[in-house]
Design brief:
Elements (H helix, E strand, L loop, with lengths): L4 H10 L7 E5 L5 E3 L13 H9 L3 E5 L5 H8 L3 E6 L2 H10 L4 E3 L10 E6 L13 H10 L1 E12 L24 E8 L2 E2 L3 E4 L3 H10 L2 E8 L4 E8 L3
Parallel strand pairs: 3-4, 3-6, 4-5, 6-7
Antiparallel strand pairs: 1-2, 1-8, 7-12, 8-9, 8-10, 11-12
Helix pairs in contact: 1-4
């Protein structure tokens, strides 16, 4: 299984050997689970933010961190030219088994083969950045993958609500992190445990500032019910 927890779980589900869910452990919350069947949901079962992002998708689309390919399959069914990209070998195999026509097994920073009208980073896909210090590098790379009139659609969450509030209205943030949205995760599945990996949750104002500094316009499209939001980034033109 190695560290490809998601890939192993998705392939088990497709091969009808699914018996348990993915367990997550993080530096900000107690043990939680990711139900494997949820990774295979259809459009009707997706949150509003994801539905809106898919509705806005147009032209040639790159689905970054595609997982089991649920977003790609929906767009493909709408005759949209979509490519599913994931660093998980198992995820890409799951996409192929489900009928996704175009797939790429790669990290996003290592991929530069084409440009797109729409880049999708859903299910807090921007989390792959890991830390706030890496955000500029990722935004500049994503910028290079966009056509002149292209768009980057991403959702994330402001997790400040998870921290204790002080009497003066501030928040107590654990030491060791430059930004409160930086979280370390490990995952467990069928007795195997992944290495710890960093994940980033971005509040909208921080995203907007970083976007502008790196040549993007940033628009808040819709807010979810639990501190989450969907944003659209487009290239600033002179």
């Amino acid at each position: 299984m190695g560290s490809d927890i998601f890939g192993a779980a998705m392939l088990d589900y497709l091969n009808k050997t699914y018996t348990e869910d993915i367990v997550t452990l993080s530096t900000i919350s107690e043990e939680d689970t990711i139900p494997v069947p949820y990774l295979f949901r259809d459009y009707a079962a997706m949150p509003l933010l994801e539905q809106k992002a898919l509705d806005l998708s147009k032209g040639k689309v790159l689905d970054i961190g595609c997982g089991a390919g649920s977003h790609s399959l929906y767009l493909q069914g709408k005759s949209i030219d979509v490519t599913a990209l994931d660093a998980s070998k198992g995820a890409i195999e799951a996409c192929k088994q489900r009928g996704v026509d175009k797939t790429i097994h790669s990290t996003i920073l290592e991929y530069n083969a084409a440009t797109y009208d729409t880049l999708l980073l859903l299910m807090n896909g921007i989390g792959i950045v890991g830390s706030l210090n890496n955000l500029a590098e990722y935004l500049l790379h994503l910028k290079s993958l966009l056509k002149p009139n292209g768009q980057l659609l991403l959702d994330s969450s402001d997790i400040i609500y998870m921290f204790d509030e002080d009497e003066d209205g501030g928040y107590w943030i654990p030491p060791g992190k430059d930004y409160y949205g930086e979280v370390d995760f490990t995952m467990q599945y069928k007795g195997q445990k992944s290495d710890s990996f960093p994940w980033l949750y971005l509040d909208y104002n921080t995203l907007q500032r970083a976007a502008i500094l790196n040549g993007f316009n940033c628009e808040l499209i819709v807010e979810g019910e639990h501190y989450d939001y969907l944003a659209k980034l487009t290239l600033i033109t002179q």
